[in-house]
Write a structure and sequence with these properties.
The chain is α/β, with parallel strands linked by helices and 133 residues long. Helices cover 14% and strands 23% of the residues.
Length: 133
């Protein structure tokens, strides 16, 4: 069973720009890049989750949330209803994205951040993070 999981192409790299580029390259050559949702996460049936995302345990993705390609949602994240998280974001452990908030592409939050459209401006746009595999 484990061997089948590891045969699936996935891009687990901390640098969002690199992660998105590799996902695009995999798609361009015909791979179907999956999204991984942990069994202890909750994702509303009305949420739209892009390809290549990883949703960790105890994360909650509420009603009508729209998530772009290649996002990472760490343990305990809450994405409240009608929020939009654009491509390549990493929402760190315990953070909450407020209802109807829009999070810019490539945003990486700290731990336990409360994120709305305005306050997310101070969060880092990590274009040159070291590669973590």
């Amino acid at each position: 069973m484990l061997s089948s999981v590891f045969s699936v192409p996935r891009v687990a790299i901390g640098n969002s720009e690199l992660r998105l580029n590799l996902i695009k390259k995999l798609c361009d050559i015909g791979y179907e890049v999956p999204t991984f949702i942990h069994g202890k996460a909750y994702v509303s049936p009305s949420a739209k989750i892009g390809i290549g995302c990883f949703i960790e345990p105890m994360a909650v993705v509420h009603t009508a949330v729209d998530v772009g390609t290649g996002c990472i949602f760490s343990a305990g994240v809450i994405l409240n209803h009608n929020s939009v998280v654009h491509a390549g974001c990493h929402i760190n452990c315990g953070s909450v994205v407020m209802a109807r908030a829009e999070i810019k592409a490539g945003t990486r939050t700290g731990y336990n951040e409360v994120c709305d459209t305005e306050t997310v401006e101070h969060m880092k746009q990590h274009e040159k993070l070291p590669v973590a595999v």
